[in-house]
Automatic annotation (TrEMBL):
Keyword field contains Oxidoreductase: yes
Name by which UniProt lists this protein: assimilatory sulfite reductase (NADPH)
Names of required cofactors: FMN; FAD
Lineage of the organism: Bacteria, Pseudomonadati, Bacteroidota, Flavobacteriia, Flavobacteriales
Organism domain of life: Bacteria
Keywords for the protein's UniProt record, in alphabetical order: Amino-acid biosynthesis, Cysteine biosynthesis, FAD, Flavoprotein, FMN, NADP, Oxidoreductase
Recorded GO MF terms: flavin adenine dinucleotide binding; FMN binding; sulfite reductase (NADPH) activity
A Pfam cross-reference name: Flavodoxin_1
Catalytic reactions of this protein: hydrogen sulfide + 3 NADP(+) + 3 H2O = sulfite + 3 NADPH + 4 H(+)
């Protein structure tokens, strides 16, 4: 205990010390006394105690292309550096029943296709929607990844966020919807996560700047070097093999997709301009881009098949009574015309951006080099009032000529990847579903993979629709393709599809499954992929002498371990 005189001297000396000086002095005096040097803790903020500090959260991600995983991993690292323990988990591996044990649960999840959850997160998604769980104890937040050029932007994130609230969970930070350039929004979101779960440390957040996360979609400039219709002239179909050359080196894995934004027909644009009387050279600013009317309609806006919500907005602007239908902009203007060019300018503001289309890459970096990429495109056709129309993007691509320029990007598929070179694979891909498997075969051939390869392919007619026939026969001759089973549905009195060929080879298929083979399915979602899955379940059940529930569990385990993957549309 200091004497009163010494205490007064100490007070006088230390009265104008800074905080850092006070800490240094206390350590200095402790050292003189021979005591262990301990850091002096700053006082806790009023109203909090040390016990208030949250020490553990769960950060779950649902991903298809890998973006959510990459982002969640980076965010987890940032949170850990701030002193909070993070359990990072893939929703494909997470047991939904464990939600009952969680206190803080944050989700980073992407949206696929027509507002669907990632394939590997669907089990979790279905569970929370099909079960009435009491989540009143749970505090949560959702970061949704998406692409605003698609109409159902971030729908999966919205669904998870609203469902958690319905189940009684407490939202501690608002839903954050991120576009393809999600860097800044992700930074902001993780700061709010930290504030929400660790309020006693709120003052220290600014001391640790958030690390930048790389994001965005890299655009490549290419030139069409080859475009060939793979079908015979007698075929009812047109399937184009398109090769693109680039000066810049490409980077992708077999199973990835090429994304391209199609342009609308110049003839259609000219008719729209004539009907509305608008000046095609007038510049208009939309929420995404500023350009002339002609360029907006040609390159940036969706005019081919409008959403019902857009049609409803059109009706409000024009004053027409329009039934709940989906029409093209040109059809709307023909049937329910605008009054003048000024009214059409309002219509332009409600149009959604042109959505990119994805095509499975059918080439291999190892086989074709880093300056060449291939896709396989079926030209789609449909009829409206007995008038034939082409699919927007397939028609757009099929009309390209050699030496024409094209802009594209690459989207990796996190779940649809080759296994190790010594592992066997079974590929099921009728029609253009063969595209990624052509990539698989070229890749495995180029690297000399030891694993066996079995392909099930089908289409309408052997003579006119057996695409890549000579290549597949060469792969068979060299042993790169171990088995090839074909199903041409129009060549027999009774239609034969790939699932029937699977059933015929049930015993050997199950032998491959038991040996660790991976199964890949690519092509039409309805009905092909479901028919194939039901056939696989029957094979597992009967060849493996399992119950229906055991067969389902067997296939689910294959999916969770990456041995059963689908790329369907």
């Amino acid at each position: 205990m200091l004497s009163e005189t010494k205490l007064n001297i100490l007070k006088q000396i230390s009265s104008d010390f800074s905080r850092d000086e006070s800490i240094w002095a206390s350590g200095y005096l402790a050292g003189l006394a021979g005591a262990p040097l301990t850091a002096v803790q700053p006082p806790l903020q009023a109203g909090f105690t040390e016990q208030n500090t949250v020490r553990k959260i769960t950060l779950a991600y649902g991903t298809e292309t890998g973006n959510s995983k990459k982002l969640a991993t980076g965010l987890a690292g940032i949170i850990k550096k701030k002193g909070v323990q993070v359990k990072l988990t893939d929703l494909s591996q997470y047991k939904p029943k464990d939600l009952a044990k969680e206190e803080f649960f944050f989700v980073v999840i992407s949206t696929q296709g027509e507002g669907d959850p990632p394939i590997l997160a669907k089990k979790f998604y279905d569970y929370i929607y099909e079960n009435e769980i009491n989540l009143s104890h749970l505090k949560f937040g959702v970061l949704a990844l998406g692409d605003s050029s698609y109409p159902l932007f971030c729908k999966t994130g919205e669904d998870v966020d609203s469902r958690f609230e319905i189940l009684g969970a407490q939202r501690v930070i608002p839903l954050k919807k991120c576009d393809i350039d999600y860097e800044q929004d992700a930074e902001s979101w993780i700061e709010h996560v930290f504030e929400a779960v660790n309020k006693t440390s709120a003052g220290s957040i600014k001391n640790n700047p958030v690390q930048k996360a790389s994001a965005g979609r890299k655009k490549y400039q290419g030139k069409i070097s080859t475009i060939i219709n793979l079908n015979d002239i007698t075929s009812e179909k047109e399937t184009y093999h398109i090769e693109i050359e680039t000066e810049e080196g490409l980077a992708y894995q077999p199973g990835a997709a090429l994304g391209v934004i199609p342009f609308n027909s110049k003839e259609v644009i000219d008719e729209i301009i004539a009907l509305t009387g608008i000046d095609p050279t007038k510049k208009i600013e939309t929420s995404k881009v500023t350009d002339t009317v002609e360029e907006l309609l040609h390159k940036h806006l969706n005019i081919s098949y409008l959403l019902k919500t857009v049609v409803n907005q059109y009706a409000k602007i024009t004053g027409h009574s329009i039934p709940e239908v989906r029409l093209s902009l040109l059809d709307l203007l023909r049937i329910y015309p605008v009054k003048n060019a000024e009214e059409f300018e309002e219509v332009i503001q409600i149009l959604t951006g042109q959505a990119p289309r994805l095509y499975s890459i059918s080439s291999s970096l190892e086989a074709h080099g880093e300056n060449e990429i291939h896709i396989t495109v079926a030209k789609s056709e449909f009829f409206i009032d007995h008038q034939k129309h082409n699919g927007l993007c397939s028609g757009f691509l099929s009309e390209f000529s050699e030496e024409q320029d094209i802009e594209f990007y690459i989207q990796e598929a996190g779940h649809f990847r080759l296994p190790e070179p010594d592992k066997d694979i079974i590929m099921i891909g009728p029609g253009t579903g063969i595209a990624p498997f052509r990539s698989f075969l070229w890749e495995r051939d180029a690297i000399g993979a030891d694993g066996k390869n079995w392909l099930f392919f089908g289409d309408r007619n052997f003579v006119s629709d057996f695409i890549y026939q000579s290549e597949l026969q060469d792969f068979l001759k060299t042993g790169s393709l171990t088995h090839l089973d074909l199903a041409f549905s129009r060549d027999t009195p009774e239609k034969i599809y790939v699932q029937h060929k699977l059933e015929q080879k049930a015993q050997e298929v199950f032998y491959w499954l038991e040996g660790g083979a991976s199964v890949y399915v690519c092509g039409a979602k309805e009905p092909m992929s479901k028919d194939v899955e039901n056939t696989l379940l029957n094979i597992i059940q009967h060849q493996g002498k399992r119950s229906k529930e055991e067969a389902l569990h067997y296939l689910e385990e294959m999916e969770l371990s990456g041995r059963y993957a689908k790329d369907v549309y």
